[in-house]
Amino acid sequence: MIKKSVATCTSCHKGLVTDSYARSFHGKAVHLGSQKSASCADCHGAHDILGQDNPHSKVAKENIPETCASCHGEASSGFSEGEEHFELTPAGAGAPMQASFSSG
């Protein structure tokens, strides 16, 4: 059932957001058959989806700890600062070093 709800969302939503969910802990657990891991609707809502800039949204910055706590108990304010929906890139502060190749 959870896989079906994720499939419903990803039938329209494509790209970075869905790819990063698939690589996340929640996405991998759902792919492997978990019936307890978070699907899109668990975090974003089903019939009450609002943008993250709306203060009533489940994913508004100030509401995220409460949203996470619905499954994870007493989630702290920084609990959700993982890489769900974020692509790690090799540029910027804290990025891993890259080998540089020279032609000579």
Description:
With 104 residues, the chain is mostly helical. It has 5 helices and no strands. Helix 2 packs across helix 3. The C terminus is likely disordered.
Give a summary of the structure in a few sentences.
This protein is mainly α and 104 residues long. It has helices spanning 2-10, 16-23, 25-31, 40-44, 64-72. It is globular and about 35 Å long.
- Secondary-structure class: mainly alpha
Into which percent range does the helicity of residues fall? 25-40%
Low-confidence region ranges: 98-104
| Count of individual beta strands | 0
Round the Cα radius of gyration to an integer and report it: 17 Å
Topology record:
Layout: H1 2-10, H2 16-23, H3 25-31, H4 40-44, H5 64-72
Helix pairs in contact: 2-3
Q: What are the defining features of this structure?
A:
0% strand, mainly alpha, globular, 104 residues, single chain
